[in-house]
């Protein structure tokens, strides 16, 4: 009975994911790219692809594809189901992984003198009530995405590293398991790959075990042996992606929105709060705007403090107590990676708080064993209130979001499908997000994919001079001419100039369909 209770508790995040999926009926734009990959893999006989046949400018494809390959092997109905309910499945798998991770301490009596039902129960409650699980922008809650699978593999890799270091004798089985997990991470998730690389370097330093560095290398050699073209393309693409992000993309996608997550605390957020108080009619209205403000509560430092509340206390506990070294090293490593990737020049390496989430089970185990019960019960109470807030916000606000943007794009997509019955359509769109919605195997389209190793003669700054979300208007005629694109979709919200200037180069345009936000043109180039 006690084991059943422990299993059922771990299903709570999956129930939230199911509720979230039902409430948010709008698919994220990235879902359409993932579906495109699945379709291309299915056309390729279920094997990973290394090129986009539908994107006119992008010659190579380097996105990790394990999840997409697995789904491509399934029947079409299963693909549809997973497209809608992937967050539920991921949370079930995460719960299963955590169930076994929380049994690890019982296997090492020399280190853990007590670890029974009460400790596991408290650990599970701290895990399932961690507020970050219920952030609807959390990677594992965003629909069809490889990020949740990457998190699952990250959990397992960190746990197996712990077991490997706790063993008194070398184990070929554990070594093989770590190499296999490294291969699966490389083949499945960009972010988990970064955790694998950065984390393993720090683990090897803290554990004073250079052998740990061999497991990612062994995993890549397995990847290279099984899928040589894909393995080479992945490395080239990721290196190109990091270079592009560091030099140009970060400035146009991240830093123009949030210049510094640290400056936020002493300058930008206080000024925003003062502005909301000054411009609101009542204090109640001001407080409502503050506590629902996306800019404030997507700051990684605020997420770390409010939604991953155990890290700071455990770091203090590490310094004061210095016990259970093998279990503390993972959390210290994640905290160092957070700091290293929170700077202006390094934020292109992803959301810093997600590195902390990768070691959450280990962080909780140490907290249960070392921190006072009274403090942990206080943390639990806080977490319960935060989760209730997340549930209420989801219940009352999810349906209020307008879906007109997607409805308009679907209307245009249907028009294009009808037009394709009588003529070839080659599409160009000035909006990056809208381009994602239009991706499908039978529609040639221009899309500057940032992990591609080649985008022809167009430099990134030619296409996205000031903003990655929109193509520079002056570049649209050049792109249309270069690739003989005969159809142009304009998102007027992102057009920084009069639409007539787009056609000043001599292109002849005829309006095909107009909605509130979009206009579809036929071009003669």
Q: What can be said about this structure in brief?
A:
The protein has 525 residues and is mainly alpha-helical. The chain is 61% helix and 4% strand.
Account of the 3D structure:
This protein has helices at 2-9, 12-23, 30-43, 66-72, 76-101, 117-128, 147-166, 172-188, 190-206, 214-226, 228-255, 263-279, 283-291, 294-297, 300-307, 311-321, 325-340, 353-358, 360-370, 373-397, 404-420, 432-437, 460-463, 476-482, 499-502, and strands at 427-429, 487-491, 508-514, 518-524. With 525 residues, it is mostly helical. Strands 1-2-4-3 form a four-stranded mixed beta sheet. A hairpin with a 3-residue loop joins β3 and β4. It is globular, with a radius of gyration of 25 Å. The N and C termini lie far apart (72 Å).
């Amino acid at each position: 009975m006690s084991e059943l209770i422990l299993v059922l508790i771990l299903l709570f995040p999956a129930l939230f994911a199911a509720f979230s999926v039902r409430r948010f009926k709008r698919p994220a734009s990235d879902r359409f790219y993932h579906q495109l990959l699945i379709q291309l893999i299915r056309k390729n006989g279920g094997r990973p692809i290394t090129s986009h046949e539908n994107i006119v400018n992008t010659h190579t494809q380097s996105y990790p594809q394990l999840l997409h390959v697995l789904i491509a092997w399934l029947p079409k109905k299963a693909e549809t189901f997973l497209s809608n309910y992937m967050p539920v499945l991921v949370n079930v798998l995460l719960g299963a992984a955590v169930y076994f991770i929380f049994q690890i301490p019982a296997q090492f009596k020399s280190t853990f003198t007590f670890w029974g039902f009460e400790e596991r129960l408290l650990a599970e409650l701290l895990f399932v009530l961690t507020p970050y699980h219920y952030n609807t922008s959390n990677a594992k809650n965003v629909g069809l995405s490889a990020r949740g699978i990457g998190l699952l593999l990250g959990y397992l890799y960190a746990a197996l590293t712990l077991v490997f270091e706790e063993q008194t004798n070398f184990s070929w089985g554990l070594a093989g398991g770590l190499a296999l997990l490294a291969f699966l991470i490389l083949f499945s998730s960009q972010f988990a790959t970064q955790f694998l690389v950065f984390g393993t370097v720090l683990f090897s330093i803290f554990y004073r075990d250079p052998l740990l560095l061999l497991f990612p290398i062994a995993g890549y050699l397995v990847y290279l042996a099984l899928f040589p073209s894909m393995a080479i393309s992945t490395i080239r693409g990721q290196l190109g992606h990091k270079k592009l992000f560091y030099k140009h993309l970060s400035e146009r996608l991240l830093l123009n929105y949030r210049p510094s997550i640290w400056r936020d605390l002493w300058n930008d957020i206080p000024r925003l709060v003062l502005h909301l108080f000054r411009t609101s009619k009542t204090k109640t209205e001001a407080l409502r705007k503050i506590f629902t403000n996306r800019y404030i509560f997507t700051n990684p430092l605020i997420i770390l403090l409010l939604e991953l509340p155990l890290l700071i206390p455990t770091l203090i506990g590490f310094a004061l107590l210095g016990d259970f070294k093998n279990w503390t090293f993972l959390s210290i490593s994640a905290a160092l990676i957070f700091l290293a990737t929170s700077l202006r020049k390094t934020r292109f390496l992803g959301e810093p708080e997600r590195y902390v989430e990768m070691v959450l089970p280990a962080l909780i185990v140490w907290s249960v064993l070392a921190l006072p019960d009274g403090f942990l019960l206080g943390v639990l109470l806080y977490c319960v209130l935060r989760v209730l807030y997340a549930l209420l916000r989801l219940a009352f606000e999810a349906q209020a979001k307008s879906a007109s943007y997607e409805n308009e794009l679907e209307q245009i997509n249907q028009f294009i499908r009808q037009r394709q019955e009588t003529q070839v359509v080659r599409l160009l769109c000035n909006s990056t997000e809208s381009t994602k919605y239009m991706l499908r195997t039978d529609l040639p389209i221009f899309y500057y994919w940032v992990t591609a190793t080649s985008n022809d003669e167009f430099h990134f700054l030619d296409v996205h001079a000031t903003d990655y979300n929109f193509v520079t208007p002056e570049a649209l005629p050049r792109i249309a001419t270069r690739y003989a694109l005969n159809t142009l979709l304009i998102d007027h919200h992102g057009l920084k100039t009069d639409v007539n200037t787009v056609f000043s180069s001599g292109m002849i345009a005829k309006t095909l369909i107009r909605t509130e936000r979009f206009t579809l043109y036929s071009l003669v180039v």
